[in-house]
Amino acid sequence: MIKELQEKVLAGEALEREKAVALSKVADKEALYQAAGEIRDRKCGRHFDTCSIVNARSGRCSENCHWCAQSAVFKTHVEEYELIDEQTCVDLALKNAEYGVSKFSFVTSGRALSDRHIDTICEYARRIHARAPIHLCASMGLLKKEQLQLLKEAGIPRYHCNLETSPRYFSRLCSTHSTADKIETIRAAQSIGMEVCSGGIIGMGETMEDRIDLALTLRELGIKSIPINILNPIPGTPLEKAAPLADDEILTTIALFRFINPDAYLRFAGGRLLIQHLERRAIETGINAAIVGDMLTTLGSKVLEDMQKIKDLGFYNE
């Protein structure tokens, strides 16, 4: 079955939900992982996309996402500040450009960034573009089309808005906004010609079918950059005692995402330190992108070490 479905995917056929569920249950996991890696090589080649993020606004978020340290609803003792200063932000972007990182993303806490803060970020973007050839992205919550247009005009052509999990399961993890709200933002960004980055978090109590439904929704939306986060349980959040996922569950999830989204960039994101022992196998299973450097409120990875790993595994980054 694995080979048959692989050939169909390589021929351009979309994997159906029932077939994806069947794949998740195959006994020969190693064959599944190998097939997924081969799909990646055939559909995407050996290019490895890198991005770095800056926590441009921290804490004080009104939303009650159960996984998030930034929520004001929970007592996580995260650092709080309104907006990072221009010099710090510009210097960080320039350093990442010097290291050869492809993209640099402004990430802000809160349901949506204010118009005043968007104007400030737009000025930061113009300053960065004047000094370094690095692609810029933004993740600023549930923005409206007019706000997204300002970002695009300032030289930020890509917007990030994670769906996080399946529409069915999302309502159990957050009640202050919905999957439909997120999709509205994604479609608004797409309607003005912005690229969109969207993925999710695994390990929040969801089922494998929830992960499959997330991957299918992302395919339906035409998403080509998909971060796969591994939950890093944050003390003070409702998920602080979530049990870690087994290695095979993580690798199977990556393989299924690759079968469902064969030509997308599947991106290592949050929780990488939890699976350092799996990094090589995860890349062999279909990963071809990563957030490098530190994450938002938890440690990530060292940029130069990541760039060397990419080369050592036979990938190139431009």
Description:
The chain is an alpha/beta fold and 318 residues long. It has helices spanning 2-10, 17-24, 29-44, 86-99, 115-129, 145-153, 167-173, 179-191, 208-220, 247-260, 279-284, 303-312, and strands at 49-57, 103-108, 135-139, 158-160, 195-197, 200-202, 225-230, 265-268, 289-291. It has a nine-stranded parallel beta sheet, with helices on one face. Helix 11 (279-284) links the parallel strand 8 and strand 9 (289-291). Helix 1 runs parallel beside helix 3 (29-44), helix 4 (86-99) packs across helix 5 (115-129) and helix 5 (115-129) runs parallel beside helix 6 (145-153). It starts with a helix and ends in a 6-residue tail after the last helix.
Rg, alpha carbons = 19 Å
Oligomeric state as shown = single chain
Q: How many individual helices? A: 12
> What is the percentage of strand-forming residues?
5-15%
Largest sheet, spatial ordering of strands: 5-4-3-2-1-9-8-7-6
Strands, count:
9
What are the segments in which pLDDT stays under 50 over at least 5 consecutive residues? Answer: 295-300
Average of pLDDT: 91
Specify the helix fraction band: 40-55%
Describe the sheet with the most strands: 9 strands, parallel
Helix/strand/pairing class, anyone?
alpha/beta
The general outline is globular
Topology:
Layout: H1 2-10, H2 17-24, H3 29-44, E1 49-57, H4 86-99, E2 103-108, H5 115-129, E3 135-139, H6 145-153, E4 158-160, H7 167-173, H8 179-191, E5 195-197, E6 200-202, H9 208-220, E7 225-230, H10 247-260, E8 265-268, H11 279-284, E9 289-291, H12 303-312
Parallel strand pairs: 1-2, 1-9, 2-3, 3-4, 4-5, 6-7, 7-8, 8-9
Helix pairs in contact: 1-3, 2-9, 3-10, 4-5, 5-6, 9-10
